[in-house]
Amino acid sequence: MITLAEENYLKAILSISLNEGGKVSTNAIANEIGTSAASVSDMLKKLQEKKLIKYKKYKGVELSESGQNKAINILRKHRLWETFLVNKLGFNWSEVHDVAEQLEHIQSAELIDRLDIFLEHPKFDPHGEPIPTKEGEIPSTNTTPLNELQVNTKGKIMGVSLDEKDFLDYLTKLNITIGTEITLLEKISFDKSLSIKIANTKQHISNDVAKHLLIKIS
Amino acid sequence: MITLAEENYLKAILSISLNEGGKVSTNAIANEIGTSAASVSDMLKKLQEKKLIKYKKYKGVELSESGQNKAINILRKHRLWETFLVNKLGFNWSEVHDVAEQLEHIQSAELIDRLDIFLEHPKFDPHGEPIPTKEGEIPSTNTTPLNELQVNTKGKIMGVSLDEKDFLDYLTKLNITIGTEITLLEKISFDKSLSIKIANTKQHISNDVAKHLLIKIS
DNA sequence: TTATATTTTTAGAGTAGTCTAAAAATTTAT
DNA sequence: ATAAATTTTTAGACTACTCTAAAAATATAA
Ligand SMILES: [Mn+2]
Ligand SMILES: [Mn+2]
Ligand SMILES: [Mn+2]
Ligand SMILES: [Mn+2]
User: Fold this and answer.
1) Which of A1, A81, A89 would you mutate first to test chain B, the one with the most B CBs within 10 A?
2) What one-character-per-residue DSSP string does A131-190 give?
3) Could you tell me the residue range of the domain that residue A14 belongs to?
4) I want to staple B77 with a disulfide (CB 3.0 to 4.6 A). Which of A27, A160, B47, B104 is the partner?
């Protein structure tokens, strides 16, 4: 049996290694989960026991084959539930993450299979994030963070890499959502902020915002 | 904060008092939850602390106002989720209880409001059990258990009072479901078993089965 | 009404997960 | 290469929930 806490650790390790690659540090996990490094150390020992991770003290951690399968399945459930909440229940994309954090732990393979069918096998969640397949594939999306684009490049927003209410509500206020056409007008070297054009309106955003906007160049 | 275990205790107390009325005994709860009487005693003290129950040692327990509200809300969630699983995801009525046991603990009032709308405000769950309203009303159903009917009475099955896979699968095998017209032909005094007629076919069922079939006399 | 059986509570202990403080290991700077 | 800073682990303790065994209370029967 795998506990809810263990599931959250596996998910955190997956999330960090998808973003940063390589071994994951104790502190990175503590930071991601919002817990102490001591608790992480404790838990890593338990996950090691269960062969869900490969862990050498002080040397960082990575998911084992079975740990990775479990983690990806949780990610799949999270994103399918978010899709359900937005597409079927009419939630706003900024409102679904916290509920999905609970729903992702419901244990029933049959439920997820049927949900996937009910949603007509969605490929992306409401934030443009790819939904892992039942087989554990995470389709790679060919996108670039907005802050890495060249000036005068035109593209379309395919997704966001941050799922926090404040951030998503701010995007909505800026008329930014998935599918929005965007042109990068200018990069300010002083603070790395950007001038952009959306629907013929010029706007200014910080680098912190831009780096979480995933663009497909057109 | 209320824990998952506490929620299950409140639900068990509600369920027992709906069936039997009056104070609920420690053993009845232990039996319902499948735990020891000692654990129940422990937990009753905690629920008392939180003013969710009225409890005098050795004298049994009843829900407080706030405990009852909480318990009814869990029942509402359970039955709405079961309705979702059957009506939207195509599960069989015998397959949904265990998953609903998990889903009923998801914390989000908004989610349940929207689910209720999505399901078009269902009044009954897939087992014919009434779904409590948001205000906490449990609509009473004017039905009689089949084993309490007079011989030669005709009626319609409005619901079942037991939600176990074996039982429901057996009913399906007998062509019994909600809405089925049924006539009570004979009561065997020796073992209290019953002869019944369904769709012009004569069948024989035990008292144990009959008592969980809720009939509206026609 | 005293004895017996049943029910309920307490006592003591175990597991899972969490925390803070301190020790040990590793990395960075001088 | 040593010292200082940082990271990670261990130690010890706490909460929530669980259990078995034994004691206390209540119900039933002779
Ligand atoms: Mn999310
Ligand atoms: Mn998402
Ligand atoms: Mn049920
Ligand atoms: Mn039901």
Assistant:
1) A89
2) PPPTTS-------EEGGGSPTT-EEEEEEES---HHHHHHHHHTT--TT-EEEEEEE-TT
3) 4-63
4) B104
**Distances in whole angstroms, Cα of residue A168 to Cα of each of A104, A157, A172, A173, B212:** 21, 13, 6, 9, 50
**Residue of chain A nearest B110, judged by CA positions:** A91
How far apart CA A186 and CA A56 sit, in angstroms, is 46
State the Cα–Cα distance between residues A182 and A146, nearest whole angstrom: 9
Q: State whether the beta carbon of B190 lies below 7 angstroms from any atom of strand C.
A: no
B201-206 LR contacts (CB < 8 Å, sep 24+) = B201/B175, B203/B174, B205/B174
Point out the residues of chain A with pLDDT beneath 70: none
Q: Among B32, B63, B94, give the residue marking a domain's end.
A: B63
What is the distance in angstroms between the Cα of A158 and the nearest Cα belonging to chain B?
A: 27
CB contact under 8 A, A106 and B110: no
In a domain, residue B135? The reply is: no
CATH classification of the domain holding A175: 2.30.30.90
Residue B20 binned pLDDT confidence (cut-offs 50, 70, 90): confident
Domain boundary among A63, A79, A110: A63
Q: State chain B's mean pLDDT as an integer.
A: 95
Tell me the pTM: 0.94
Task: Tell me whether residue A93 is in a domain.
Answer: no
Distance A204 CA to C27 C1' (A): 40
Of B89, B103, B108, the CB nearest to A114: B89
Specify the CATH number for the domain of residue A10: 1.10.10.10
Lookup: tokens for A115: 């949900």
Residue A192 belongs to a domain: yes
B8: in domain: yes
A80 touches chain B (CB under 8 A): no
Q: Footprint of strand D, using CB within 7 A?
A: A 25-28, 37-38, 40-42, 44-45, 55, 57-60; B 3-6, 35-36, 38-39, 42-43, 46, 58
Question: Number of folded domains in chain B?
Answer: 2
* Candidate from A187-191, B81-85, B110-114 with smallest mean pLDDT: A187-191
- pLDDT of A1: 82
